[in-house]
Amino acid sequence: ILLFIWIETSNEYFNFDWVVYLGTGQWIFWSIFVLSLAGILTAYSSLLLLLGFLLLWEGIELYLHWCHKILILLVILLCILFMFILCKFWSERWLVAGLSLQIFAPYVHLCSVTLMVILSWPLAFYVAHLEREVRMRRHRMTRSEKKRLKRCNILTRLRGLQVAVGLPFLLILLCLYLMPLGIYSPCIQEKEDLGPKPAFFGHRGAPMVGPENTMMSFEKAIEQGAYGLETDIYLRDYKAANIKINLYIVNEPWLFSLAWCSRINSVTTDNIPLLSQINHPYFFMTPRFYMFMWLLMDIVSAIFIFAIFCFHWRREIKKEKLFKASAILTDTNSTSQSEKQ
């Protein structure tokens, strides 16, 4: 939610401030406040999750100070508030989520595979630990035939835990490996199929370098290479005049790159100085290059995951051998002491 708010607000900060002004009657740069707040809360939540994971990994009891509990509750409440505002006043802006997936889907896939490789380390440790526990219980069970039935139930539970933990991981990993077969991105195409660079329409001129809806802003937009200009005429009742406003502003380079790859002829923007410097769409790649990255990532990640599981498996086997050796030594010592007596 915070990431979506960041993407949408950074692309349409002027419209965001305008929407807030219409609701509150006060003109304040709310976009800067929201961007800063979303960035701080995202960094805080991510750091807290990372520290919690590391503490649990080391077997340390997780204890949150009361201030962290209050801040976590505040983050949850703010996310609920932002969701309500988005659904109530900016429901049409959810289109950005789908558009962002079209351009970022290949990179989300690669990052997801990398994340699965990282998660395979604690998962392999847990599965191997369960396997060692099963073998150790079997070793003990041969010496106590009376408790065989009870311990068999315990072994069944341990095996069930292994399946419950390992099977979802393997299924998710398999889906990620096959995900590129269903990914569609306009930015994955041959170079000769790429259309011309979209023309710019200055939204209220060039508000980045001059006051919007002024002659100065219009002149600056033309100097920056604007193909056309867009201005606002204020009426008391748009519906009575049969006027509909359906304008989407493109200010971010990634969104402009998506429009370019989609062969859109022109875009309306506030950020002509930045977008005019883009000579090639961002995140553009050929199908052959993406296939190479896909196969390379899958093969390398599979090798790493296999090596991680083998490492933990061999380490647990060594622990099991040490346990058996110590058990045999203990039995030998107890037998010799009994013979002496």
What does this structure look like?
With 341 residues, this protein is mostly helical. It has 3 domains: 1-89, no CATH class; 98-188 and 287-341, no CATH class; 195-275, no CATH class. The protein contains 10 helices and 3 strands; from the N terminus they run H-H-H-H-H-H-E-H-E-H-E-H-H. It has helices at residues 2-11, 13-24, 30-57, 66-89, 95-141, 148-178, 215-223, 253-261, 272-275, 287-340, and strands spanning 199-203, 228-230, 266-269. Helix 1 runs antiparallel to helix 3. The longest helix is centred in the C-terminal third of the chain and has 54 residues, at 287-340. It starts with a helix and ends with a helix.
Task: Sum this structure up briefly.
This protein is mostly helical. 67% of the residues lie in helices and 4% in strands.
Strand content: under 5%
Structural class: mainly alpha
Overall mean confidence score, pLDDT: 75
> What is the domain total for the residues?
3
Radius of gyration over all CA atoms, rounded? 30 Å
Please describe the biggest sheet, giving its number of strands, its sense, and whether it closes into a barrel. 3 strands, parallel
- Distance between the amino and carboxyl termini: 74 Å
Q: Please, how many helices?
A: 10
Share of residues in helices: 55-70%
Oligomer: single chain
Strand order of the largest sheet: 2-1-3
Write the element-wise H/E pattern from the N-terminal end onward: HHHHHHEHEHEHH
Subcellular location: Membrane
Domain GP-PDE: 198-341
Family: Belongs to the glycerophosphoryl diester phosphodiesterase family.
InterPro entries: GP_PDE_dom, PLC-like_Pdiesterase_TIM-brl
